[in-house]
Design a protein that fits this description.
Layout (H helix, E strand, L loop, with lengths): L2 H31 L5 H19 L4 H14 L5 H4 L6 H19 L1 H12 L3 H15 L5 H17 L4 H18 L8 H12 L6 H26 L10 H4 L8 H26 L4 H9 L2 H11 L4 E3 L6 E3 L3 H5 L4 H18 L2 H13 L4 H18 L2 H19 L4 H10 L11 H8 L5 H26 L7
Antiparallel strand pairs: 1-2
Length: 485
Amino acid sequence: MSEAAGQSGERRGRAARIGLWLGPIAAALAALAASGTTGDQQALSALMALCAVYWITEPVPPAVTALLAMVGSVLLGIAEPARAFGPLGRPLLLLFVGAFFIAEAMKVHGLGDRVARALAALARGRLSLMCALSGAAWLMSMWMSNTAAAAICLPIALAVAASSSDRRLGTALVLAVAYGASVGGIATPVGTPPNLIGMAAMAEAGREVGFLTWMGLGLPIAAAMLAGLWLLLALLFSVRPGQELDRAPVAEERVPWSRGEVSVVIALGLAIAGWLVPGLFALAAPRSGAAAWLDDHLTEEVVALSAGCLLFVLPARDRTSGAGRPALTWREAAGIDWGVILLFAGGLLIGDLARDTGLADRWGAALLSATGAESTWALTALCTASAILLSEATSNTAAATLIAPLALSLAEGAGCSPLPPVLGATLGASYGFMLPISTPPNAMAYSTGAVTVPGMIRAGVLFDVIGFVLIVAGLRLLAPLFGLV
């Protein structure tokens, strides 16, 4: 172990020891600060403070903290057991399962290595490779789930990172893929669930926002965010133009395709087609029976699980003995970091409880009172910042569910145009970059082991600030052009 690595580990250990005691103290202070609220709101404030400190300092594994959130919500009387553990059965988590199966099979059969070698041969250096991987995730996430886009690109990033002696390159590539997948989702209405929640809120305000109108707003902001991502990661992790890749381990090799690789490509191709087809039908014939059937039956979770389970049937050969075997075995699948599922479920639960107990509404009213925001653009800035902050502690979908309707009511109460604040809240809900629990791509990036929680926080804080500025400035420039003010 290097001296720098030893010092880093010592700092993490010190932070964990401090966090172990700081968590209960923060919970007590949060409960005291919320003494004027209802019992459930006070208890939830304390529980959220405890979990936030533990997720940041990691005195216990993040998945264990998520389980503590579930158990704590029952012990504190905030939720019944069925409600507390219900997020473990969310369809979104099953999308994780299918995506993990595909990613694991790519790793087992070296498909990521093959693609990485081809990509490394085309890239001029580290910076161009980072841009290519994040750009691919960004583009794919416009039409499929952010999680699926990240699942496709992360194995490639890991394969390249494994061939480099510079750990910073691996961190930069993994974060570039995760953040690129989250950013690209805002460009189209179908890119991520918060977009649809925002569109529904705007429909309640009497304004239907069409597909092209959304792209006219979302695509330029998403493109600016991608450029900002490249600049930020290049500066943070010293990825400079002209830096060459370690080509020896990833050089092009004329290796025949194995049966396992072919099987993985088949499963991956079916997954990509399944994720794209419903959206394409919705664009081509939105009112057709076929589009409605596909939307109801060919969901992202069904596609992911179908493709993932197919890997247990498709043929492959053992690399060592040459004996026949399935493309993925259960022993290999059992080695996946399933703690990420628990981690994300805990985040979903906290978001649900914040909405159910009325704590989120109380926060919104307090923000309005504290800031005195009354104009359209002041409310837009307030709602955007609130959505970004909330998305750090819960899922993007939960953040949009909480903030978008609140933005609508705040704007109507202030007599302002509600559309920019709702759009700001919707886009901001997709910008949780600080913690593993903030988004599925973040959780997947953390599960690779290439990025630490402190490292994600450092990059995520800066990217959150960039996102806030670009959303508010972008809406200020573009919304009037589309008559949304």
